[in-house]
Amino acid sequence: MDEDVTESAGAPPEPDENSGIGSGNRSESDAAAEDRDVTAPADGGPRRGAEHQALLTAVASAMAAAVAAATPAGGPAGTPPIPGALPAPLKPRKRHWLRWVAIGTSAAVLAVAGTGWWFYQRLDSNITTDTSTAAELQTYEKERPKPVVLDAENILLVGSDSRAGKGNSKYGRDDGGSQRSDTTILLHLPADRKSATAVSFPRDLMVEIPSCKRSDGSRSRPQSAQFNWAFEFGGAACTIRTVEKLTGIRVDHHMVVDFQGFKDMVDAVDGVQVCLKESVDDKDSKLKLSAGTHTLDGEQALGYVRARHSLGDGSDTQRMDRQQRFLGALFKKVQSNGVLLNPTQLYPVLYAATKAITSDPGLGSLSDLYDLTRSMRSVPTDKVQFLTVPRQPYTQDPNRDELVQPAADTLFEQLREDTVVTVVPKPAEDDGNGEESGDGSGDGSGDENTGGKSDGKSDGKAADSAAGKTREDAVFQGTNAAAGVCE
Predict the structure, then answer these.
(1) Same-domain pairing of 314 and 218
(2) Is residue 17 included in any domain, yes or no?
(3) Percent of the chain topping pLDDT 70
(4) Average pLDDT over residues 234-239
């Protein structure tokens, strides 16, 4: 049996007489014991020589398979054969096919990554960052309101009526780049992101405007004037300081959108549907539509939200109501699965949105905007609320507005403290255009109006008193994104 072991494992080396380890140093009993260990296990099982032979054969086969898999056909010159080696399990032709699949997959992954990076860079470069506003606000940091609630955000949205820029000259003469805020909305996002409240400021609202830095470097004087003059005096920085002074609310970010940007965003979602009970032909806003249901493109939508004298009673109040309802419908469509889950529609929306806005550095990158929109993605459309600050005709000029107190301060406190703002639909009144209308102001109480409409030049502005009502009892009239523009 010892011969079997010798033949399978190879002849043992001759003992080295000078090494101190040899047959002369072992007793016969040690040799016998060693022979017993190798040839005959104590438990009477099979001999280990056979186990060694099987083990060596398996190892050799595995080594041969590994070498064959890693070596081109034929192997390198001079490679000695391995005793007991098995044939390679993969044929060279199959290995070549797998190699080309791996190369093709890698190329596809790199192509997708490169395309994604190109799209990201293109969208990111679209955004215009307003660093001058940030610098101006930093100068007055000590007088600005402090943030009250962590993670709650207030974003001022400004629609500029500037005729400067591509595509805007057709809406009027460009007075050397002068501009006023055609629409101003303070968007409040609560810390829990379960709702969103958008508050409109009438452009004719009388406010205290601080001294502001003009575009030519000079400064305006502090004065009481109508709200939209602030944007003309000192751009976004002056408007933000005016809003903060009026409300006591810290404005965290701002976005400015011009006419062309608004049109592009509407076109990107393939239009927004509205209903008209009567035909409209407004030369000032360049809007001409027949009665019935229409899906407005960007040009028509701009005319629809800017029209004043040809829709409803011609008041600025109803114009703001119409703007709020249209923006709600636009938000609803962008949030719908047809846009967010459709790459062919989502990219144009992202491109139009990033191209349309001028924002502060805090929202000046695509990742910043993505984080903002992602935080609003789960907000139900009926929780996206729109209202106008409580106001009434200005006592010294019925063509201007003034705040109604304490209703206005109650609203501002709710937004500042990040508490729930309750907005209910306005009483339905037929304005001839398939829209609900009302006095356009928050009532702050839920009671019937105590104010009345002023003469024809007052734009039908009225407001309710909230005297005697607590903050928890306050209710404001408005609309939400679920209502849409068609009823």
Answers:
(1) yes
(2) no
(3) 61
(4) 95
Q: Which of 73, 105, 126 is the last residue before a domain boundary?
A: 126
Q: Do 335 and 398 fall within a single domain?
A: yes
What are the structure tokens assigned to 24, written together? 């002369």
Residue 485 lies in a domain: no
Element (H, E) at 139: helix 131-139
Residue 264 and residue 192 in one domain: yes
How many other C-beta atoms can be found within 10 angstroms of the C-beta atom of residue 34?
11
Same domain, 408 and 474: yes
State how far the Cα of 39 lies from the Cα of 29, in Å rounded to an integer. 15
For residue range 169-226, what is the model confidence (pLDDT) as tens digits? Answer: 554 444 545 566 778 999 999 999 999 999 999 999 999 999 999 988 899 999 999 9
Please give the tally of structural domains in the chain: 3
For residue 358, what are the β-bridge partners?
A: 128, 256
In the chain the first and final C-alpha atoms are separated, in Å, by: 101
| Model pLDDT for residues 352-410, shown as the tens digit of each residue | 888 888 999 998 888 888 888 888 888 899 999 999 999 999 999 998 999 999 999 99
Domain that holds residue 121: 93-126
Q: CA 357, 360, 363 angle in degrees (round to 5)?
A: 75
Among the three residues 126, 141, 175, which one is the final residue of a domain in this structure? 126
Beta strands 272-276 and 384-388, pairing class: unpaired
Q: Which of 31-35, 241-245, 301-305, 320-324 has the lowest mean pLDDT?
A: 31-35
Give CB contacts under 8 A, 24+ apart, made by 275-278.
275/433, 275/434, 275/485, 275/486, 275/487, 276/433, 276/434, 277/430, 277/432, 277/433, 277/434, 278/432, 278/433
- Read off the DSSP letter of residue 426: P
